[in-house]
Amino acid sequence: MYQSTDLEQLRQDNPHAMHKTPFEHQRDAFEKLNALFTFSDKEHKAGILVLPTGAGKTFTSVNWICRNVLPKNVKVLWLAHTGHLLEQAYKTFESNLLQVPQRRSVNMRLVSSDPEHSNASQIDTSDDVLIITTQTAISNTEPAALDATGQPRKTAFEKFLEHSRQSGLFVVLDEAHHAPAYGCRNLLIGGNRFADGIRQKVPNSYFLGLTATPSYSDARRRGWLWDIFKDGIIHQVEKADLIRQNILALPQYVQKNTGQDIAVDDSLFDRLVRQHKDLPEDLIERLARDSGRNDYIVNDYLDNYQVYGKTIIFADRWFQCVYLKEKLMQRAKERGITLRADAVYSHVDARAGTVEERNQRNTAENTRILRQFHNNELDVLLNVRMLSEGTDVPNVNTVFITRQTTSAILLTQMIGRALRGKAAGGGADKDVANIVFFVDNWKKVINFATPEGGGREESEPRTRGGYPIEFISIGLVEDLSRQLDSGLVFADHAYLDSLPVGWYETEVLASTGEETDSFREFVVVSEKCQPKFVRFIAHIQQNLPAQWEDDSLDEAYAQQQAALWIAGFFDLSDNTSKLLDADLIKIARHYGQTKTVPPFQSFVERNKHDLDKLAGDLLEFNEFVVQDKLHATYHDSAYLWQRFYKSYDRFRTAFDSARNRIYHIRKFGSVPELNLPSSTPQTVEQRELTEDEKQQVFQRDKYTCLCCGKTYGSKRRVTLQVDHINPFRFGGETSLDNSQTLCSVCHKDKGINEINFRVHRSRLLAPKATLEMKRPSSKESVYVEEEISRIVNLFYGCKAVADIIWDHRPRSRNRYQWELILFEGNNPAWLEPHKLALIAFIRKEMNCPLLEDITIR
Question: Do the domains 250-460 and 2-237 match in fold?
Fold first, then answer.
């Protein structure tokens, strides 16, 4: 996304343009910014502007930059960690360019991984305002790439920074509380990853951080924050002050349960909990098409329309907008309610693949409907997130968020559409903003973003994966279901064995894709495992590698390390939840980033909830006494039984299960042997082939790595391993058909991806963006075919290489010109953009300096 604006023409076209009037707190911020950033001596300055969500951080900073930075021909680098924030900044610059005096033109570029934005290679030294995700900036700083001569290659971003030394560079970091993150910190001021940061590379640079609350409980991160922003807080405004001034409305959070039950298989659970990604598109589509769920949303609005008033409804698909709109109008008419509703949705669905979706709305129609909503000619406006940022409709009373999301920043943007108070045009009667969440019944605890009750400030860690009591509840209910599935209402262990002795509270900065956030997560610890956790933590305090400090920690590496820790400190029976590896990773990341052991909180009420004791106390009483006691105990607020079991029937069943066990012990003096389903659904044999089966795989694959072609023999030490083609953790079977032979290097490089090297045709829908080339352990040219095969086969995701023709003999034509032959069905053009880098890699790393070209066919 790029535009070059002729400012002189813009002024001529808008001679009577009306500029937005800043609030008093914004004018105060302008004065403080002017005082710090004088630009007179070109001395580095760095400070933070603290404004709560909804107070106009983006407008305040952009408006001041247009009037005070761009006129001095100082370049602007705007960093944010999501595409939503980038687009908001880009639109704000567009609407404030008339404020730029003196200059004739301004060039703006927006860069991210989004296909509608510019890519990093298009960055130009002529750009005046570069708006880019922090992650893209980091990945384009000092990359390990070589040019055709074997020299380090400079990215377009690095050239932009170098060129900025002439003019000066004003760097804005949105969500500045993320500055202490390993990658961001290194980008700005240098460190272990980059020797020099922007501060050193561009001495006449200036840093402005934007955040709501620049606070950290961890002293280490707090110290980093003020190392980066050495001049401290420039100006700070409290949310409570803006609410008192009626600039912001008081948010009122309302949660509505749709009653929709959603099962969570291992693949979805892994995506949402381990990979911290949002819902997959197919599930979003299913929710959007669920007429019963949509009807619930419609009825809730109509039941409360007088309270909700002017409302924005955030949906996920254009057809969901159409359905909701038609049902709202139809049922309002049936109830005798006068209602005006319409929808806009092309902005996002223009990215969809079908003509039908793209043609549902045109820009002119959307503009007309938005104008009607602005002018109070509509009561309800439905949209596909196109109003999540940048659209100013101050008198909105309510927002409907129709499904849960793991994206904290998206949630914040949607909530922000209703937070304008009376003084900001929110309406004379607007005291509160209704934020209505529609939630479903998920079968496991998922990392959904929440406003944390009264509203979470940006720098506060977001609780991810649920609170300890939720984990305990799910464990107890799953345990009860296991008993019922067996046909026996009979506990097979003491009740307190199911309750933890406490939990560790971890806090981690994590980057997932192009979003970074601070997360609070809990690790629930059983009595049996507590000493094992203590030994594990003592071990990592002395032996944790430095890369655990990185907020973009490689997932495959973390999983491999966690597997070694489980083998070294725990038993298979300790992993009944199948999340032990994730728990160890949480603790290790916390220690790596903070250099402190996560605090442990004992479950002080554990013994108070001994269901065995209650069952024993009531064992000899009649059913009338038992029923009365159980009802009273379940509903007693001094206990947690309602939070554990959610319903009295479950609690009663759990009690009966415990009572039957206690009865058998007292009558017969022992616990009977029960054949209940194991709480650990997979055993070692199910996760791994037997030794005989492994030999069958090796024999079938001719004791050869199917990726690189390395073969086991007496003259060479080769470690061969049996690999799951579709990984076990994603539901892959432990079978001969789902197994393949790989060497230890290829097995590590494949990681947890699903790649079948037994087939010769790629299943990828599009080429990968990069060609991964890792330095080989040996530079002997005799192994060059193995190294190239590994690189290319991993790139195509199959055994794509049919032959490599090369010859080191002096008179051979293939000494200088090599041929790479692919099996049919693999597009050679995919490799062409990476050919020069591959040639440079082979020359330097494989001791083949005479190579001039490679023909790929």
Answer: yes
Q: Return the pLDDT at 88.
A: 84
Separation CA 618–CA 590 (nearest Å): 45
**Mean model confidence pLDDT for the chain:** 83
The 10s digit of each residue's pLDDT in 236-288 is 998 888 888 888 888 888 888 888 777 766 666 666 655 555 667 677 777 77
Return the CATH architecture of domain 778-857. Answer: 2-Layer Sandwich (3.30)
List own/partner pairs for 571-575 with CB under 8 A and 24 or more apart.
572/680, 572/683, 572/684, 573/680, 574/526, 574/528, 574/529, 574/532, 575/680
| Residue 297: closest CA among 420, 396, 380, 376 | 380
Q: What is the DSSP string of 646-698?
A: SSHHHHHHHHHHHHHHHHHHHHHSSPPP--PPPSS---HHHHS--HHHHHHHH
* Spatial contact of 90 and 3, defined as CB atoms under 8 Å apart: no
What's the pTM?
0.56
Strands 600-602, 739-743: pairing is unpaired
Q: Which fold does the domain 2-237 belong to in CATH?
A: Rossmann fold (3.40.50)
Architecture of domain 682-758: Orthogonal Bundle (1.10)
Neighbours of 813 (CB within 10 A): 8
Average pLDDT over residues 155-181: 92
- Per-residue pLDDT tens digits for 584-608: 999 999 999 888 999 999 998 899 9
Give the angle 256-262-268 at the CA atoms, nearest 5°: 120
Nearest in space to 468 (alpha carbons), one of 607, 611, 644, 590: 644
Task: Tell me the domain boundaries of the chain.
Answer: 2-237, 250-460, 500-602, 682-758, 778-857
pLDDT of 391 above 70:
no
Contact 523/506 with Cβ under 8 angstroms?
Answer: yes
Per-residue pLDDT of 749-760, as tens digits, reads: 888 788 999 999
